[in-house]
Design a protein that fits this description.
Elements: E1 4-8, H1 12-23, E2 27-31, H2 35-42, H3 53-63, E3 66-69, H4 72-77, E4 81-84, H5 99-112, E5 119-123, H6 131-144, E6 152-156, H7 166-171, E7 179-180
Parallel strand pairs: 1-2, 1-4, 2-3, 4-5, 5-6
Antiparallel strand pairs: 6-7
């Protein structure tokens, strides 16, 4: 089943994920604040250097399954699932900078206000345990005015991709980890709650 996917962050993880999802037959929209990255992906060129990604980007572009935008609202409203793949660089203190993750969560939350159907948000960025519950979910709920587990779903799905063989690792990862809360109540009747399969 083809799923419409938006990928936030066109760095290493986001670019590989976007190219591979498109290769699997899904409709993919890459989202980034960088005009250069958006223009590259939009033209079928890879924003990163990684084996096989360039050819998959070209394939996705030519098939019409891969596009890019800087408009978070459009990306969310035109997709079923949003992957957060933005960077979490280390601070001088040694802690992770979660500023990009929080900003994207708020952008997605704001876009959810305009979307009548159920949406799934998947965090793939490298974060410490507790980040989804303490940062991502509150940011989404505050920006959207909606409730997790009722109006939208949040999952954590860390990546295990090695540089140089990331495409192979995407398709056959050494581990697959997926975490989410069980909904505490049934989704509201005006929001559909589809099942998504990515592989």
């Amino acid at each position: 089943m083809s799923v419409s996917i938006s990928v936030f962050g066109l760095g290493y993880v986001g670019s590989v994920s976007a190219a591979c999802f498109a290769h699997l037959g899904h409709q993919v929209t890459g989202v980034d604040v960088s005009s250069a990255k958006v223009e590259a992906l939009g033209a079928g060129r890879s924003p990163i250097v990684e084996a096989r990604v360039s050819e998959l980007m070209t394939e996705g572009h030519e098939s019409g399954r891969l596009r890019a935008t800087r408009d978070a609202e459009v990306a969310v409203c035109e997709s079923d699932v949003s992957f957060i793949c933005v960077g979490t660089p280390s601070l001088r203190s040694g802690k992770l900078d979660l500023g990009y993750v929080e900003r994207v969560a708020r952008e997605i939350g704001a876009a959810l206000k305009q979307k009548p159907s159920h949406h799934v948000i998947v965090l793939r960025s490298t974060v410490l345990p507790g980040t989804t519950e303490l940062l991502v979910i509150p940011a989404l709920e505050q920006a959207s005015g909606l409730r997790v587990g009722v109006d939208f779903t949040v999952c954590y799905n860390p990546e295990f991709m090695r540089e140089g063989c990331a495409v192979a690792d995407f398709h056959q990862p050494p581990y697959t980890v997926l975490g989410t809360h069980e909904p505490s109540e049934r989704p509201s009747t005006h929001r559909t709650h589809p099942t998504h399969r990515f592989h």
